[in-house]
Amino acid sequence: MAEANRQGKGIAYIHWGNSWQLRSFRDFRHHIDDLIYVSDLPKVDLSSYAAVIMPDAMDAAAPRPHAEQLNAYLKGGGFLVVCLQGHADWIDIPGLEWTPGNCRDWLWWTKGETLEVRLAEPHHPITETVPLSHMSWHWGGSYNVPEGARSILEIDDGRGSLFLDFPALPGGGRLLLATLDPHSHNGQRFMPATTLFLRSFYTWLNRELGIERPARNRFTYLQCSHVPSEWRPDGLEKSLARKGFETSFAPLYELDPDTLGRTDTLYIPSSHDEFFLRSRTGDLLYFLERGGNLIICAEPCQPWLPFMAPFRAVPPRPFTNIRVRVRDDRFGIFSDLGEGFDGWKGIFGQYARGWTDPPPGAIWLTDVGAVGDPKPADWIWQYPTENERGGYVFMHNGDNMTRYPDRGPRQEALVANIAVALRRLSIGELLF
Q: 361-393: per-residue pLDDT in tens?
């Protein structure tokens, strides 16, 4: 079970290998404990979980061989969440019937019209966290409301329910059953309401189960150079504290698994011992594998992690080559810093003078070099793992970012902005 949940029983997520399912798990992994391949269900003791998720985008035939096990989990007091559109006939619920159908107009959302759904009366408590707007896109048929069930969302002409709660099944189990398909559309990065649904739903589910997740607010600055402004930069703790972070400082040569186990985000300034960091490759990769984040300032000569590349400088003339330009600010890191964020004491070229090639899948954030031949001064990347829990790397190919910006109302805010973005990515408030 993932380290994120230290409360005992956690939440399992059953997948069929579909990319949309996997991407949605990756997005909301902070709220879920284990990723289980549907074919591996016979090896799994489901009773060890407080809840089990069966997401949409599942092949209809995939769960059927495991129907006895899934129903036994429910009858044994488990909490099963199923988002299948009419393909859940393996669930042992007397009187449950599905009727095919969908919205009147697939393009309703382009016409400013209201979708023909409404919240059931009285409103289910889940709607305090998951409002109607988060449940409004389309559906795959509807269910009747058998005895013992409570409707959450229904078609406004009374044709049936799209989201049902069976709160007290025989044996103490609970079933949430929906014909909505949020995981597939969120995984396709299509239909923003589905992302809002999952974000609010998983928050509700954890609260409903009494599961508390860590705040991901532990930040460690690796002390690599004994120059005072590098060893303990002025203003760093204060700027991070304003964003809710607990900041600690750790000397480079004391970097070990215990140090990494006490932090969520490790910051490495630009002047550092590449030979020593290479000796800690295994520890740093395990830190990323379990969901830790790295902020690296570097101009690597001998890259010390396998995804890093050698630094290459851009031509320094004309001087506009070393003016760094924001290319993609989807994570809100640079938007409030002003145009001169890269000019320490007004000097351009300190922030970044070149680039390193990013690994596949990285997002290129800022440009350096000629306008007609830009290179990535900053990029962000998620470390790939089989369990989809990899942390993020923010790679800055230049000077120690604690210097920037050095003036104005957002002075010393850059590192804090990056830390906030990584934290929000880690807990599903932003999508990569």
A: 999 999 999 999 999 999 999 999 999 999 999
